[in-house]
Predict the structure.
Amino acid sequence: MKRAAISLLAMVLMVPSLGSAGPEPATPAREDKCPVCGMFVAKYPDFLCQVVFKDGSRFFFDGAKDMFKYYWNVSRYSPGRAREDIQAVFVTEYYDLKPIDGHKAHYVIGSTVYGPMGKELIPFEKEEDAREFLVDHSGSSILKFGEVTVEILKSLD
């Protein structure tokens, strides 16, 4: 009985090390700049986004629009890197101002709310919040991560 309990305890203690929950969002330093537009991102915590690579390096952005520009053209903004090496994407949820998984977010476009770089994709964790925002702020549509295209980004410039 004692041997089984010790074995069970050893297995339980090993579980956290078996599967990594993945990277956590980080806070940018004062000197961190958006690789797309060059703005200092710490000044815009309400719109902060970040991309984390498998090697642990990360890039911060002053809004989802620039993050998507980077995502769709990684080699332009970070020569030698590839989109396939991105491990996680975090965006700041509009209402709660907390980092959320960018791949799972709902993005409102065409609204009357502007970000640091003008027209912006406004991220939400819950689709119902995105729908409410869309109505309240005259948005044109709600998109999922994979629906945001280069053409849509050009229309926001």
